[in-house]
Request: fold
Amino acid sequence: MSLLMRANETPRKSSLLDDDACWKAVKRRDRAADGTFFYSVRTTGVFCRPSCAARLPRRENVAFHKTCADAERAGFRPCKRCRPNEPTLAETHAAAVARACRLIEEAEEAPSLDALAQSAGMSRFHFHRVFKAVTGVTPKAYAAGHRGKRVREELAASNTVTEAIYGAGFNSNGRFYAAASDLLGMTPTQFRAGGSGHVIRFAVGQCSLGAILVAATDKGVCAIEFGDDPEALVRALQDRFPNARLVGGDERFERLVAKVVGFIEAPGKGLDLPLDIRGTAFQQRVWTAIRDIPAGSTASYREIAERIGAPKAVRAVAQACASNDIAVAIPCHRVVRMDGSTSGYRWGVARKRALLAREKAA
Reply:
């Protein structure tokens, strides 16, 4: 039995291939289908990638294969034009970017763009464009994000803030302090002291999806977390900022929690909250795109990657969704797989399905 697919879909790896969908991909010379299958041509004796630029063969002479090995076992040889048995251009670019990322992560100071491009065997301009297409951020932004991660680690281990800043690869105190608020959500000294002197208001409520914790700084809501155990939610917040001053919500703050609970129970009301969003440049671009998904609608991880101008960064988009601390206000529950399945949600798939069902019914 063949797998049913829409006409504009790209075939995926499966135990079966949909011949009609594969043929449509060949006619489109669909690069997105490369690696999902190969096609052979009986009259020439070769097999090709779906995107091969060779003259389109007659349909009756074409067969489809899951792998190069399958095509070779059937007696076909690789096309010399598209070289299906060699890495694709996309795979080559991904490998080059992965090497560049390792260079950035292992270097004491961020390598220059020229040095990274040279290591990848590309021109400066071409490497910059390829890196951004694969990761969704520029090499400079990636290096800054990695330094932010390193500085958080160094702040926990170093004797002084200055030592941590230079140990993390920042060559200027001024540059780091200018970005510290976005990276850490507080001053480096406060972060190093586990949030010492930092006030975080919080309250735990109850909704039909379980316990819910809402926490906020003076900038806005910094966490909305679901859970089954209210005490575990509070302990997790304490673990993040062991020396911060956690203040139980007053009547005004509890009205904010009630607003969040009201949205969960009746999404048609909408939810407009001031947010204290902390994350890398790439994560913030993903979260901004997610906030643009209307209630009652969904978008795939791939669609989000395309919207932020990084179509190849699907896995990084999924990781950004998993790193989101602010449920419903940053509605990562509206991001699904290409086939519409709702797997993957840090607060549980059952909650994700319930949120989506309520929004569609609103």
